[in-house]
Batch of 2 targets.
Target 1
Amino acid sequence: MQHRPTSDLSSSADSLQTVANADTAAPGRARPRRARRKNARPGELLDAALDLFVEKGYAATRVEEVAARAGVSKGTLFLYFPSKEDLFKAVVRENMAGRFAEWKLELDAFEGNSAELLRQCYAVWWERIGSTKASGITKLMVGEARNFPALAQFYQQEVLQPGTALVRRILERGIARGEFRPMDANTGIYLVLAPMLFLSVWQNSLASCEPVADAAISPRAYLDAQVENLLLGLVPRA
């Protein structure tokens, strides 16, 4: 999701005029550094917020810390995000919720069988979410959703509902094509999601407690094993 600020009240009148002049400059003229910096601020704030929310949790993160990590004042942060709740929602949309449109298009265009599609589902999730800092958002919601019901409802609407809808489509596609056995899709959805939830929580909590490196979970090997076991239960039975 792109945030396109319209003004920066913390800038002086002269600085605002400089930016305005740059916007109307002849094509090819380089934009002033201040204008480029201003346009980058929302992304820098979202990056800093993601880091701190994952490191400290929602309740313990203060907007002053986010602003300091992004190199701006608290007042500047509030120009783009009026509250910590708005900031958190923007982080979720930027890193998770905003991806569902592209995933839906990829699902629409997929031409392989449903077993291959399920494997692709896990591979894409790991590449774009599971192996990134964004996976910490899931762990954060597991720990703090009960204390922040408004955020829990937001996460339900923006992430869980579209996510379960995509998984449902995969299962129903397989059933309709005779590639998966008939089953209750409402239950099957959570069989598919469970390994993703486990890895998100594990990587952002208990993984740091592993006493021996050789005992650490290989996320890719774990997902491969899970999908194979899941497929053995989904294939039609003689």
Note: DSSP finds eleven helices and no strands in the chain.
Target 2
Amino acid sequence: MTTPAATAPQGENPYGIIQALQQGGLLAWTIFLILVIMSASSWYVLFVKLFEQQKIIRDGRRARSAFWQAGTLRDGAQKLEKNGAYRQIVDDGIVALEQHDKLTDPVDQHDWMLNSLARSQGAIASRLSNGLAWLATVGSTAPFVGLLGTVIGIYRALINIGLAGQASIDKVAGPVGESLIMTALGLAVAVPAVLAYNWLMRRNKSIIEELARFANDLHGYMVSGGAVKPQIVTAAARGGTAGAARPATPSGTTATGGAIGATNPGPKKV
């Protein structure tokens, strides 16, 4: 049996990854391709979820400012990104508010709106979690796929020792190198997947908390007939020249008794 060192061209590493895979045959190539697919798909999920999360975060900034400055809820919804998470919550809230008057059995408006907004938030949270299960699967199984390649490499090394009758380095270097490469590949695939999963889960938690705060503000505004709305930080306040704008009072005046300016009128009706 010819050794890798004997067949490799001058100056080329006879124990590289390609040479190890060629010695391992179809099984080694299959394991290697599985690891490559797992790695590529996990990176794809990471970038897709990051783009989706960043889109919701941008929409949240718009919801905290432009939405509450609109004249009506429908006008405020138009300022949000179409098919966005915050737009979905507002649209579902408006639909629930309109449906409440059509109910034949008396249902408290507070409970009806609360359940409707909670259902909307649940749908968004479910959509945000799509793909994360695959990252968890890759992170937990990739080391074992690499371990399978390690076992096969060690098995081939033992076969070479048995055929040669002695444990010479040229007989075992190739299979042992293949097993170590498979171990390293399994870890290289698993570690980024686990880190990406934990990072995306933490970002999802923050996004869901922001959505819950917005839905709570929207719920209070709707069930109060527009008398309750969140505080809105004006541009002057962000610049340090004034404090946060005061929330509108039920009578439509500020806490000092003056009329509310046009800066933050807030939605007055659906």
Note: Residues 196 and 223 are 40 Å apart (CA to CA).
